[in-house]
Design brief:
CATH topology: Elongation Factor Tu (Ef-tu), domain 3
Radius of gyration: 16 Å
Strand order of the largest sheet: 1-2-7-6-3-8
Oligomer: single chain
Shape: globular
CATH superfamily: YaeB-like
CATH class: Mainly Beta
Number of strands: 8
Number of domains: 1
CATH architecture: Beta Barrel
Number of helices: 1
Distance between the termini: 30 Å
Length: 144
Amino acid sequence: MTAGAEFSPIGVIRSGIKDQDQAPKQGISEGLEATIEILPQWHEALEGLEPGRWLWVIYHFHQAGPPKLKVHPRHDPTRPLTGVFNTRSPKRPNPLALSLVRLEALADGVLTVRGLEALDGTPVIDLKPYSGKLDQPVDDDAWT
């Protein structure tokens, strides 16, 4: 086993969500708007991004608390417990989140995005462009 990975945030999320109780279960379905403030040393890396583009935002659930092996899906106690890897729960061994957002605007290192349900102050680890060709499931026959 290798040593643990270390990441440095490239920016921070600014949203109207101040605590976990305010966060919807899935931001993309709510259409929430937020901004991502990218640190100045990474501004050049934003070149080529245009409004209307879909992006994957990888961020750190910095207030998730300790991990759990099993959770109730969507924090609903009427649903049976299942392994955390079978859910999108933040109570993960490595509390990373992945959200698909639409870029609404970009100016001076600040991205305005729609579909992000993160808490205000959440560290952003990376951004990746969504690709319809690469991010769609492959046909099972492609693996044989």
